[in-house]
Amino acid sequence: VSCPRITSMKPCAACGGRAVLRRPKNGEALCRECFFRLFENEVHETIVSNKLFVPGDVVAIGASGGKDSTVLAHILKTLNERHGYGVKLVLLSIDEGISGYRDDSLESVKRNMLTFGLPLTIVSYQELYGWTMDAIVKAIGRKNNCTFCGVFRRQALDRGAVLVGANKIATGHNADDIAETVLMNILRGDIARLQRCTAIITGADEALPRCKPFKYTYEKEIVMYAYFKKLDYFSTECIYAPNAYRGYARTFLKDLEAVRSSSIIDIIHSGEAFAVGKDVVLTVPETCSQCGHMSSHTVCKACVLLEGLRRGQPKLAVGKSKKMNFTFGEG
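^ thats the sequence. predicted structure below, dont judge the formating
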């Protein structure tokens, strides 16, 4: 994502000084310091108005080394000190086992651990599941590998958060990510996920709720903030991501944004306004009979995928769980 800058001398809309950038969200010309102030104040307002944290919380920040999680760690540390949230912040990274990608991005996280003065814990797919993503891709190919990674990463964050004693997880999902997810769930007809994908807090009734402080923050503005703050982050895309279904939704969203900058927020508001008919039966969360983690089925998707890998049937495991007609732990 490029960083929009103003080449001609224009006054800052906030202070009248020399503007150095134009906000993608509304086209407003701003100087560097006014942009920092507005960006930080907007995130603070999102946190306070949605009651994301309470004093005493231990918040695990999902830290990948990318722009979103790096800016999130910087912002939460800054706002926690400035406004006295009274929370303890820790960095939590997941090593999926992707050579030439995750190992490099984790080096960025380690540098930020020192820069921000926040403790860091790294948990890996290898130690949790006995598989790396490189091995999974070798077994299943480039198609559907993101299904494995997404399911495993979500559970790995939960297990890592328990390990560090956190009671909340904060992720760097931004407005673009959420708008893409709304589009994907509409295209897939996934009513259950469509109902909850715009929620700023998910799993509020569970042991480890997740929150998204950047829900209304444009990706381009996160890039601008990181650029002007000179933050250290890893910017290379995952080597397995080009074939991901999300990529098509992202391309479509960028085309919409080019025509109408408010498209991102408009889609989020549309997602928030969706109502599910009374005749639609939604799944009720339960405890996985195999691993004990929360699931929408008797056996969670992570266990189904792992069993498919163990049985040498990974592609079958990607489909509906009911297709897996084997007994766990046998064969």
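The longest helix spans residues 145-164.
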